[in-house]
Amino acid sequence: MKIRRDVFQAIADPTRRTILLLLASQTMTAGAIAANFDVARPTVSNHIKILTECELLKQEQLGREIYYQLNPEKMKAVDNFLEPFRKMWDDRFNKLEAVMKSKIHERKKR
Fold this sequence. Notes:
Elements: H1 7-11, H2 14-23, E1 28-29, H3 30-34, H4 41-53, E2 57-62, E3 65-70, H5 72-109
Antiparallel strand pairs: 1-3, 2-3
């Protein structure tokens, strides 16, 4: 039985976010990933399993080793979800900046 994992539940965990950051720049084996944590290797393997089940990671077997890498398509889906929030905050900060600049300008006139 395959468990359906939600991407946002997966990235809610700080260890899994760290794994994603590690894999952002290079492909790694589970052992290489686990070497970056002070927890048991099976614990890291479980995190990798969750990230793989929700398709944030792809795996490729080369000989006896399995290499993990980010799945850019799934990461793009996360980015697309966040984009409206990013725009909303950019707009709010731009408005705040305009108010602050006008207040500074008013004080200089005095």
